[in-house]
Amino acid sequence: MTTFGTRLAHAIEERGRFCVGIDPHAALLEEWGLADDVASLERFALTVVEAVAPVVSVVKPQSAFYERFGSRGIAVLERVVTESRAAGALVLMDAKRGDIGSTSQAYADAYLDPTSPLASDALTASPYLGFGSLDPMVDACRAHGAGLFVLALTSNKEGPEVQHARDGERTVAGTILDHLRHANAGAAPVGSFGAVVGATIGETAEDLDFNGPLLVPGYGAQGGTTADMLRIFGSAARWALPSSSREVLRAGPDVTTLRDAARRGNDAVHELGA
Ligand SMILES: O=C(O)c1cc(=O)[nH]c(=O)n1[C@@H]1O[C@H](COP(=O)(O)O)[C@@H](O)[C@H]1O
After folding, report:
1. Residue 235: exposed, middle, or buried by beta-carbon count in 10 A (0-12, 13-18, 19+)?
2. Does the pLDDT at position 65 exceed 80?
């Protein structure tokens, strides 16, 4: 079985490192001239899949935008996952799950077990019930060749109150990164256990070289730039996946214009791996 880290490394080599977030915001549906209903959700999401899944390495649907339409929205999310993977993109399900261990097992079954209708290549996870509460997800990733991206230094302004808090010498974010370093030990070319670190965090004293990938939201609409990423990540930038949702999605609904926006995004972040 090929690990997620190995598949990601190949995808970056073949397609570049840009990740497109498939986030059907109500405001974007309106910008596209669509109604705020499930038929429009489907039209929006599958147009984005058609445009970008054949050209980018990773797509990241944010589950909340589908959940708000109930079971029919989840049915659209299932198609986003299946059709994106069929077009050759890795799917990073952005659901930011995290709960006590026994419930984490159910989240692992829902998103990381290949027999699930929502089975994805990787999942975003919240470690704020303690990193060990994510063990069932870590085990599922090892069993099924999937990946996990754990919130460490998020792009929102409220994050630091928790993530910069100290327990003695270590910050909370530093402790999360240590767990990831341990989970990725010995993996090559890169581990399957990533961190979420925003392009907007300014600077950090944390060591981001933990042999794992970095999901980097905050690029584009939230103001983060390639220069910010080079400064913040240093040598760890080679495993960075800059992620953009609204900036790319605003290029729709025309498929060619959307695809061009994704290609431009890919070109703009190419130098991170140089
Ligand atoms: O995990 C994420 O993707 C994420 C983490 C974070 O720290 N900040 C953040 O904005 N995100 C997600 O990134 C997307 C926002 O992308 P933009 O529309 O490009 O700002 C949403 O899906 C957020 O949930």
Report:
1. exposed
2. yes
Say which of 96, 97, 144, 259 is annotated catalytic: 96
Q: Which helix (H) or strand (E) holds 124?
A: strand 122-125
Q: Would you state the pLDDT for residue 152? A: 98
As a CATH number, domain 4-273 is 3.20.20.70
Q: 204 is written with which tokens?
A: 């950090």
* pLDDT tens per residue, range 88-140: 999 999 999 999 999 999 999 999 999 999 999 999 999 999 999 999 999 99
Q: Report pTM.
A: 0.97
Q: What is residue 240's three-state secondary structure?
A: strand
- Could you report the predicted ipTM of this complex, rounded to two decimals? 0.96
How many residues would you count in the chain?
274
Residue 198 contacts residue 153 (beta carbons within 8 Å)? yes
Q: Are 23 and 249 in contact (CB under 8 A)?
A: yes
- The residues spanned by each domain of the chain are 4-273
Tokens linked to 124: 């975003």
pLDDT of residue 228: 87
Most informative mutation of 162, 245, 246, 247 for ligand 1 (most atoms within 8 A of CB) = 245
